[in-house]
Write a structure and sequence with these properties.
Layout (H helix, E strand, L loop, with lengths): L1 E2 L16 E4 L5 E4 L3 E2 L7 E2 L8 E5 L5 E5 L5 E5 L13
Parallel strand pairs: 1-2
Antiparallel strand pairs: 2-3, 4-5, 6-7, 7-8
Keywords: Cytoplasm, Cytoskeleton, Immunity, Innate immunity, Metal-binding, Nucleus, Oxidoreductase, Selenocysteine, Zinc
Catalytic activity: [thioredoxin]-disulfide + L-methionine + H2O = L-methionine (R)-S-oxide + [thioredoxin]-dithiol; L-methionyl-[protein] + [thioredoxin]-disulfide + H2O = L-methionyl-(R)-S-oxide-[protein] + [thioredoxin]-dithiol
GO biological process, one term: innate immune response
C-alpha cells in the first residue's frame, strides 16, 4: 500500500485490511495497519511507526510537527500531540 500520494485524494483513510504502509516516493516502510486508527482528518492516522527510522520529524512554527519519510524526505503529514486513539498518544 502506498501512503500519502496527494495527487488524487487519500485512498487509504478507510482502509483497514492488514498490511504495511510505505512511502509513495521510495517504498520505505512507514506504518503497520495494526497501528492505524479511525480519525476525522482526511488522511489515515497512525499511533506508531514500524521502525525507529521510518519517519523524520521537523517542528513547524505554527505548532504541529511535520512528518517526513525517514529515507527520502517525502512529506507525509503532521503529528499532533494528544490527538491519538488514547489520550497522550500522537497522530501521524
Amino acid at each position: 500500500m502506498s501512503y500519502c500520494s496527494f495527487t488524487g485524494g487519500e485512498e487509504y483513510k478507510n482502509h483497514f485490511q492488514p498490511g504495511i504502509y510505505v512511502c509513495s516516493e521510495c517504498g520505505h516502510e512507514l506504518f503497520s495497519s495494526t497501528s492505524k486508527f479511525e480519525h476525522s482528518s482526511p488522511w489515515p492516522a497512525f499511533s506508531q511507526t514500524i521502525h525507529e527510522d521510518s519517519v523524520s520529524k521537523h517542528p513547524e512554527a505554527w505548532g504541529p510537527i511535520k512528518v517526513c519519510c525517514g529515507k527520502c524526505g517525502n512529506g507525509l503529514g503532521h503529528e499532533f500531540m494528544y490527538d491519538g486513539p488514547r489520550e497522550g498518544l500522537s497522530r501521524f
